[in-house]
Amino acid sequence: MNVKPLTTQEEVLALLRVEILTGELQPGQQIVQDALAEKFGVSRVPLREALKILEGEGQVTHHPHRGYFVAELSVGDLHEVYRLRALLEREAVTAAVANITDRDLFKIAELAKEVHTATSTGEVLAITAANREFHFAIFELCEMPRLVRLLRQLWDATDVYRSVYFAQAPNRERILLEHDEILNALAARNVERSISWHDTHRDNSVASVSAVISG
After folding, report:
1. Domain end: 70, 88, 104, which one?
2. For a tag on the chain, would you pick the N or C end, based on fewer CB atoms within 10 A?
3. 87 and 76 in contact (C-beta within 8 Å)?
4. pLDDT band of 29, cuts 50, 70, 90
5. Last residue of some domain: 21, 44, 70?
6. pLDDT band at residue 43 using 50, 70 and 90 as cut-offs
7. Mean pLDDT of the chain
8. Domain of 34?
9. φ, ψ for residue 27 (rounded to 5)?
10. Span 120-142, average pLDDT
11. What pLDDT is recorded for position 21?
C-alpha cells in the first residue's frame, strides 16, 4: 500500500504538536511565528494554516493584534473533553468487543508490550505515541469511521494533558496495569468489564491531571 507523503502543512502541524507536548512551547507562551518558521525551515503560510487547526482543537488561542498563544491548561476543559471521550469511547468499545477476533487480540497485546517498552524509557513522547496506538487499535474495531475520526480529534486536543499525566512515574506504572485489565476484559469478550476499565483508565487520568493543574 502506497503511503501518501505529508504536505508541508501536515509536517508543520506534527512539529507543533511535538513542541507543545514536550513543553518546548509552554502553556500561555506566545508563539513567535517568524522564529518557528525559521526553526522548521518553512514559510509562515503552512505555519499559519497549522496554527488555525490547533486553534480549532483548542490547543492554541488567537488574540487580535497580539498573535497566537499556547492554550492554558484548564480543569474545566479537561473535564469537558474527557466527558465527551467517555460517551464516544463507550460506543466504540461496545462495538469493538462484538467484532474482535483472536488475531485482533494478538495485535493489541503486542501494542501493549510497546507501551511497556516506551514506559521503561520514561520518554513522554514515546509513551504518548505507543499509548495512542494501543487504544486506537481497539477503537478502530468498532467499524464506525466517523466515530473514530471524532475520537482522534478529542485525543489530539488532550495530548498535552496526557503528557502531564505520563510525566509522573506512578501514573506510568498504573497505565500498564490498566492496559492489562483492558486486555483481559477484551479477551473474555466482556463488554461491561471492557467499558468499566476504560472508564477507570480515563478517570484516573482526570483526577491526577486536575490535581496538578489546580496546584
Report:
1. 70
2. N
3. no
4. very high
5. 70
6. very high
7. 93
8. 8-70
9. -55, 130
10. 95
11. 84
Closest Cα to residue 111, out of 93, 138, 92, 141?
138
The total number of structural domains that make up the chain: 2
- Give residue 215's pLDDT band: very low, low, confident or very high (50, 70, 90): confident
Q: Is 3 a domain residue?
A: no
Residues 96 and 158 in one domain: yes
Q: Which CATH number do you get for residue 29?
A: 1.10.10.10
469493538: which residue's cell? 96
Judge if 16 and 87 occupy the same domain: no
Alpha-carbon span 202 to 3, nearest angstrom: 32
Do 58 and 101 lie in one domain? The reply is: no
Whether 156 and 202 share a structural domain: yes
Structural contact between residues 123 and 193, judged by C-beta atoms closer than 8 angstroms = no
Is the pLDDT at 58 greater than 90? The verdict is no
The closest of 75, 178, 79 to 119, measured between CA atoms, is 178
Q: What's the CATH number where 114 sits? A: 1.20.120.530
**Same domain, yes or no, for 41 and 121?**
no
Task: Identify the band that residue 108 occupies on the pLDDT scale cut at 50, 70 and 90.
Answer: very high
